[in-house]
Amino acid sequence: MKRLTIGVALVATLGACGTTTVAPPVGKPEASAWSFTDDRGTTITLPRRPARIVAQSSVAAALWDLGVRPVGVFGPHKRADGTADPEVVPVDITKVEGIGNVWDEFNVEKYAALRPDLLVSSMYVKDTLWYVPDRSKAQIEKIAPTVGISLMGRSADQLIERYASLAKALGANVDAPQIVKDKARFEAAAGKLKTFAAEHPDLKVMFASGAADLFYVCYPPDYADLSYYIKQGLDVVTPKADKGGYFESLSWENADKYAADVIFVDSRTQALTIPQMAAKPTWAALPAVKAGHVYPWNPVTRLSYTGYADMLESILTTLTTL
Predict the structure, then answer these.
(1) Which CATH superfamily is domain 3-172 in?
(2) Strand order in 97-98's β-sheet?
(3) Which of 100, 130, 237, 256 lies 20 to 30 Å from 83, alpha-carbon distance?
């Protein structure tokens, strides 16, 4: 897995969590046994429904939208200025314990002190929990069971339903009025995108990320959002992926390999900003760049109806105002 594209290096430094107060659980644990089968094929069985959940930041964000309140998070959640990292929004980071903020950082002692019932993370690589360090994996798994949700080969709608099934298993009311409202927003925005795509069959869109020496063109089948846009009919550039998947890495001299009318650029802190990319001659010469049709894009949008309703509405606003 290439670290740049899926967000392993962040410049935000780890700050101390502002409070040790933890958010309340979804509800009282049930007296009956609890069971859930994750995407590793592992069935987790506990005497009662887990209440104290620790989750990777983007997973915590999705679960929060769906009514689950984790007690701890790991992965990008706090920026250097103390504000919430976009990856963890809408989680209230003053009400959860942060146990790691950057790649390969996971405070096992803090984790154990939370008395977790369950750890939840996504998986970009088969059977590998995202942001759980290999060196402490065995120790972490002794403290509490873990659940892995695979992001590979699934579009956004499929993954939202998967997280909803987990949230429901954890006791959340996934038919709550706000969730139903946001699901309707999501479906309405998807319909509008489908109509837009049908009306603009010649519009070519690219999703990319920049580094000092390389230009990464994203490979849609490996991204939940991009594969979903293609399902709605949007013409998204599909490069020949590198061996590890997710993107084709190009030298900056070859950044013009694929033509696009609009380019969405990785907006996370480890990627080059749009102004930084402007210093690359081949980038500046791209038609979309010359036309001013370059826009920010966050590859780690939370997989909930709320998150994707926001994302689809934002992309529609961009595309319909070109």
Answers:
(1) Nitrogenase molybdenum iron protein domain (3.40.50.1980)
(2) 97-98, 72-74, 53-56, 118-123, 146-150
(3) 130
